[in-house]
Amino acid sequence: MALQLREIALGLDEDESLLPAKVAAELGLDPEALRNFKVVRQAIDARRRSKVLRIFSVVFELADEESVLAQQSANRRLSTWTPPAIPSIELKKRSHRVLVVGMGPAGLFAALSLARYGFQVTLIERGESVEQRVPAVNQFRSGGPLNPSSNIQFGEGGAGTFSDGKLNTRVKHPWGGMCFGHWWISAQGRRFLLRQNPMSAAIGCAWY
Q1: Whether the model pTM is above 0.70
Q2: Residue 155 and residue 132: Cα distance in Å, rounded?
Q3: Region for residue 68 given its phi and psi (left: phi exceeds 0; alpha: psi -120 to 50; beta: otherwise)
Q4: Among 2, 70, 93, 204, which is most buried by a count of CB atoms within 10 Å?
């Protein structure tokens, strides 16, 4: 078992290395007692412009977790934590052929997952690649013609390719980290997955 403590605040100029000491101080523990300490969620609290904060959720293990939970029974930010169970599919060669339509986030992830699990996948998309979409979309925004088959909505990456940052999955399913992890482990690394609302376009398929 492990414990999770939510809503730990750090100022913008405070280093994350201070987190174990803050947690230990709140719980009345020695920082050395916290084992396997890690950040599992990070968000920004900008409600007060004069004091913008980074808000963290962390998990850790203790020698006597039941005792600490009992002592901190009034602390609603402290709870037990269990890693989300990820579904397991037998990896083997399969004879089934699968057609996936659309290269938006859902289509790309579905095709990747199916291929990894041994299915023969064909992925089709009506629009163009990101490299071709970017100049065409920029031209359209400048008054040029609209390509009905390849534009902001259609093409590799889907509509989120050109998102301004306001869109996210709006889903807090425990498998979310697995889904995003398949995509961006090489692009932005683990820090991306800790964001409060990781966004399907945040990888920046098209910076413009």
Answers
A1: no
A2: 9
A3: alpha
A4: 2
| Secondary structure (3-state) at 189 | helix
Instruction: Enumerate residues 6+ apart whose C-beta is below 8 A from 17.
Output: none
- Rounded Cα distance between 6 and 116, Å, is 35
CA angle 34, 40, 45 (to 5 degrees): 110
Judged by DSSP in three states, 151 sits in coil
Which residue, 12, 22, 76, is CA-closest to 48? 12
Long-range contacts from 128-135, C-beta under 8 angstroms, 24+ separation: 128/155, 128/156, 129/155, 129/156, 130/155, 130/156, 130/157, 130/161, 130/205, 130/206, 133/157, 133/161, 133/206, 134/206, 134/208
- pLDDT tens string for the chain (208 positions)? 799 999 999 998 999 999 999 999 999 999 999 999 999 888 888 888 888 999 999 999 999 999 999 988 899 999 998 887 777 767 777 788 999 999 988 898 889 888 888 889 999 999 998 889 889 899 999 999 999 988 988 998 888 787 755 555 555 666 666 665 555 544 444 554 555 454 444 444 444 3
Q: What's at 79, amino acid-wise?
A: S
